[in-house]
Amino acid sequence: MNEPRQKEAVPVVYPQYLAAPWQEDDEVSLVDLWLELRPYRRLFWGVFAALLAAGIVFALFVYQEKYTLNTAIQIGTIESGGKIVKLESPESLKGKLTSAIVPAVTAKWLKKNPDLERFKTEVSSPKNSAIVIVRNKVSDAQLAVFTAFQQAVADAVLKDHQQLVALYQSNIRDQLIAARARLQELEDPRTLQMQLDRLKLELQAAERKLQHLQETEKVIARGGKEAVLRSMTDEQKQLVLNDRGEVDDRVLQARYEEILLSNRVQQDQQAQAVEATRLKFDEVKLAHQRKVEAQQRKVDSLQSRLDAFNVSRVVSPPVRSVAPAGLSRKLMLVLVVFAAGFVAFVAVLLALFRDKVREREQEQS
Predict the structure, then answer these.
(1) How many CB atoms lie within 10 A of CB 118?
(2) What is the CA radius of gyration of the chain?
(3) What are the Cα distances from residue 277, in Å, to 54, 167, 199, 267?
(4) Which domains are delineated in the chain?
(5) What is the pLDDT along the chain (365 residues), one digit of tens a residue?
(6) What is the dihedral of CA 261, 263, 265, 266, to 10 degrees?
(7) pTM for the predicted model, two decimal places
(8) Comparing C-alpha atoms, which of 103, 116, 176 is closest to residue 143?
């Protein structure tokens, strides 16, 4: 029998777009890399030392740490409609500061300090508070200048608010002066006495009228019908005559009784008027006391409104933060070390690249 034919091996051909199989020779050796870079160690340490020295000098003698300088201004309060309200909303004051006060003071400060570079002033306000904070970033060398700057900004705010407070207080003070004058007038004993004297004159007049009615009744009673007839006018007498021209006794008697009844009714009315006038003395005294108490309450209310004015004030003068706002000097030194090492390493790589290029050029030539 014929032996089976062995299959011939088919060579494997990788397409060009596929990566060739990994070979051990392609591995990067750290030893080889070190041997390549070792000749440039003097360059590395030279560049590193030079940059490190320059960075230390910059960090220690040139670089200035920046700190935040803050001034806190509390907005004052006034009384309005029975409620204590802010003299000005924080949003309104922030807008006034950023658009008017800070630019004006900044321009004045730059003119006063020509060596000072243009700077930024931040204005903020904590949520749900009546405090506005003015903030600058300054170095220790600028601390005195910016402290005076923030004080000038705060003084401008306080001056503006004092004008508003003075306007409100002026109106209330005028009312308070008038109210106190009226209270003093009411508390003067002569004021009440004048009312009582007028009431006394009214009572005396009412008593005299009552006495006159009583005396009139007595006169009518003593004189009888004849006295009534004598007091009549000619026209009235015609009313009591009969057809024969004689006095009708019944008509005269009715007229007599009518006059007596009218007099007694008037006496009753006048007696009531006298009694009512006498009762008025206590009513006048009580009403006067109520007026005094009401006026005192008005004075107290106006004084309370005046006392409710709480002028704006600086609750925190310019204060420098403890920690730097940006890079501290220590962090700057650390960055200098890393930056010097990185630049020195890059310098070594560039030198290595330069030498390799020269070797290749020599081989080709």
Answers:
(1) 6
(2) 56
(3) 108, 49, 7, 15
(4) 31-62+328-364 (no CATH), 67-184+309-320 (3.30.70), 189-307 (no CATH)
(5) 444 454 455 555 545 444 445 444 445 577 777 888 888 889 999 999 999 999 999 888 888 888 999 999 999 888 777 777 888 899 999 999 999 999 999 999 898 888 888 889 999 999 888 899 999 999 888 889 999 999 999 999 999 888 888 888 888 889 999 999 999 999 999 999 999 999 999 999 999 999 998 998 888 787 777 777 767 766 666 666 666 666 667 777 777 788 888 889 999 999 999 999 999 999 999 999 999 999 999 999 888 888 877 888 999 899 998 888 778 788 888 999 999 999 999 999 999 888 888 888 888 87
(6) 170
(7) 0.55
(8) 116
